[in-house]
From TrEMBL:
Species, as recorded: Bosea caraganae
Family: Belongs to the ABC transporter superfamily.
Span of domain ABC transporter: 9-251
Top-level taxon of the source organism: Bacteria
Keywords tagged on the record: ATP-binding, Nucleotide-binding
Name the UniProt record assigns to this protein: Sugar ABC transporter ATP-binding protein
């Protein structure tokens, strides 16, 4: 018998309180490399608070986080990013007037030397080529990397936000409600982006209220209610209705 692989990410006893408000209680969670895991639950269940702890945006009030069996503590989202954990929030945090390549490399621009070794200028050509490579990896057909992001569709903007995560070599990509603001066609594009990430070996943590998206994409579903994890199982055979019922039964228990 083969030993189960060490999880890429493990949470043990994670709690998060904001003053007297307990948002997350005693959550244990193991995420394996290459999985797509959906985190579901009603409003106020604690999904965002849990994600903020994993993404380095908030410190946990209790518990530990490990990556590949080694304890880690993320002091900031940048710190999490340098450990290979990237989070894409609903607003995508893109600069609409800047071009695709400027958004992909925002805060981590590539430079090249000119004349003297200590004199460097932005390496626009390389940033354009790399951005093109990331988007091609996601099967997104945009050729002009100088196009401002405000002229892209919602799905294409998600692709730019994901490309930024890829630029950091993120292994774990956390997506907060990626299809919430999108129409049918754009939603299909984003679901394809997530499938592509999985096919390329990335691990995806997905917060979603859309049970159809969850059934279509996730390998495993985690359902939270009143800060606790009360379901953690493979998606095998579950329907969107099953998931909705599970969420509601969790609410009834929490009430
Ligand atoms: N910064 C904060 N200060 C105080 N309370 C907070 C803060 N952030 C979240 N909470 C509370 O923590 C609880 C969990 O909220 P959280 O946003 O994590 O849930 P959620 O499942 O993501 O909900 P939603 O689906 O509505 O985003 C709620 O009672 C919420 O009011």
């Amino acid at each position: 018998m083969t030993e189960p692989a060490t999880p890429i990410l493990s949470l043990r006893g994670i709690g998060k309180s904001y003053g007297p408000v307990v948002a997350v209680r005693e959550v244990d969670l193991d995420i394996h490399a290459g999985e797509v895991v959906a985190i579901c639950g009603d409003n106020g269940a604690g999904k965002s608070s849990l994600i903020k702890v994993i993404s380095g945006a908030e410190e946990p009030s209790s518990g530990t986080i490990s990556m590949r069996g080694k304890p880690v503590a993320f002091a900031s989202p940048h710190d999490a990013l340098s450990h290979g954990v990237a989070t894409i929030y609903q607003d995508l945090a893109l600069a609409p007037r800047l071009s695709i390549y400027q958004n992909v490399f925002m805060g981590s621009e590539l430079t090249r030397p000119v004349l003297l070794p200590f004199l460097r200028v932005l390496d626009k050509a390389k940033m354009i080529a790399e951005s093109q490579r990331f988007l091609a990896q996601l099967s997104v057909a945009i050729t002009d990397m100088t196009r401002p992001v405000e002229r892209l569709s919602g799905g294409q903007r998600q692709a730019v936000a994901i490309s930024r995560a890829l630029r950091w070599n993120a292994e774990i990509i956390i997506m907060d409600e990626p299809t919430a603001a999108l129409g049918v066609k754009e939603t299909a594009l984003v679901l394809d982006l997530i499938r592509k990430l999985k096919a390329d070996g990335h691990t995806v943590l997905l917060i979603s209220h859309n049970m159809r998206d969850v059934v279509a994409l996730a390998d495993r579903v985690v359902i939270m209610g009143a800060g606790r994890k009360f379901v953690d199982r493979p998606i095998d055979g579950l329907t969107a209705d099953d998931l909705s019922h599970m969420i509601m039964s969790g609410n009834a228990r929490a009430a």
